[in-house]
């Protein structure tokens, strides 16, 4: 089934060139199908790249999905054309009376700040509180996961001595649960973060389960027992070259950055990228949409 997005969205042409099934509003009107409504709160500075990555994953399922892109009103994006934001993005005030089947909250490059120091923190907490009664299930990614765990359960984040940067092996801990259905016992996922959440804090909360973790990268997937909150500490949505772009950007800035671990073949930047996380990324999004959203929404 297709993903429903505006014709003018830059991702439209990219996804169609990749044979991802995309339809626009006009065609959707002629189909007697109730699309799942999924909002994406895009906090990443690379908004067009991030929205394309997420739409690619949301569009690769048997379910028809209508996507609404959200931005924060309390923060001015500096890396995305203002016309693109005004044309394709809504603010929380514009949708607060609506209900959604799903909500995706992305990461953000603010993890070295305390949560309360982030300029849109108050707005984000209002959205998180609103989602409790207006969204069936929320998927939180990277810093979004840390923010959700902190606001909902008081779970702190800790600064790492070195950036968690690369592709890391994880193992599933509850393979019988629907969210992990079809997962291999061991799978790979990208991480790009300076902070972490810790297992010893999570196990104190009865309402959540640790679903997957890594010896090197720590906790990866955490879920509430009712599947209404899924927290993923990495970036399963990343394209093959996203980590390379971040690495090149930081090198150009003179930042203290190391080569992404387990990313290039033989850890040699002159070799191609060893892409081995895409199948599980697709499976994660498909399972979330099916079992946590579609099968449980009214």
Feature tags:
Rossmann fold, alpha/beta, 32% helix, 12 strands, single chain, twelve-stranded mixed sheet, 298 residues
Break the fold down into its secondary structure elements and pairings:
Layout: E1 3-4, H1 10-17, E2 22-23, H2 25-29, E3 36-41, H3 47-58, E4 65-70, H4 82-88, E5 89-90, H5 92-95, E6 100-105, H6 121-134, E7 135-141, H7 143-153, E8 158-172, E9 186-196, H8 199-202, E10 208-214, E11 218-224, E12 229-232, H9 242-253, H10 278-294
Parallel strand pairs: 1-2, 1-4, 3-4, 3-6, 4-5, 6-7, 7-12
Antiparallel strand pairs: 8-9, 8-10, 10-11, 11-12
Helix pairs in contact: 1-3
Which sheet architecture does the biggest sheet show? Answer: 12 strands, mixed
Strand content: 25-35%
Low-confidence stretches: none
Number of helical stretches of at least 4 residues:
10
Radius of gyration: 18 Å
CATH superfamily: Class I glutamine amidotransferase (GATase) domain
At CATH's second level, what is the architecture? Answer: 3-Layer(aba) Sandwich
Distance between the first and last residues' Cα: 20 Å
* Mean pLDDT rating: 91
Helix content: 25-40%
CATH topology: Rossmann fold
Q: Based on Cα principal axes, name the global outline.
A: globular
How many individual β-strands? 12
Number of domains: 1
What structural category arises from helix and sheet content?
alpha/beta
Q: Name the CATH class.
A: Alpha Beta
Secondary-structure element series? EHEHEHEHEHEHEHEEHEEEHH
């Amino acid at each position: 089934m297709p993903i429903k997005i505006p014709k003018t969205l830059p991702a439209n042409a990219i996804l169609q060139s990749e044979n991802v099934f995309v339809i626009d509003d006009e065609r959707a009107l002629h189909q007697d199908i109730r699309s799942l409504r999924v909002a994406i709160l895009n906090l990443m500075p690379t908004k067009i790249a991030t929205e394309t990555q997420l739409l690619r994953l949301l569009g690769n399922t048997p379910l028809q999905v209508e996507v609404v892109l959200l931005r924060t009103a309390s923060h001015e994006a500096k890396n995305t054309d203002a016309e693109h934001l005004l044309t394709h993005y809504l603010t929380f005030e514009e949708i607060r009376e609506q209900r959604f089947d799903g909500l995706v909250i992305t990461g953000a490059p603010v993890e070295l700040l305390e949560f309360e120091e982030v300029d849109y923190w108050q707005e984000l907490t209002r959205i998180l509180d609103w989602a409790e009664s207006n969204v069936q299930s929320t998927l939180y990614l990277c810093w979004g996961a840390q923010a959700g765990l902190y606001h909902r359960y008081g779970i702190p984040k800790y600064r790492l001595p070195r950036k968690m940067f690369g592709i890391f092996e994880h193992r599933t801990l509850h393979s019988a649960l629907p969210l992990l259905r079809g997962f291999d016992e061991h799978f790979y996922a990208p991480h790009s973060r300076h902070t972490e959440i810790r297992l010893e804090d999570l196990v104190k909360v009865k309402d959540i389960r640790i679903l997957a973790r890594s010896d090197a990268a720590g906790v990866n997937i955490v879920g509430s027992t009712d599947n209404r909150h899924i927290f993923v500490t990495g970036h399963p949505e990343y394209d093959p070259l996203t980590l390379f772009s971040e690495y090149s950007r930081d090198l150009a800035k003179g930042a203290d950055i190391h080569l992404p671990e387990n990313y290039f073949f033989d850890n040699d930047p002159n070799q191609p990228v060893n892409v081995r996380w895409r199948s599980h990324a697709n499976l994660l999004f498909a399972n979330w949409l099916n079992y946590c959203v579609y099968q449980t929404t009214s």
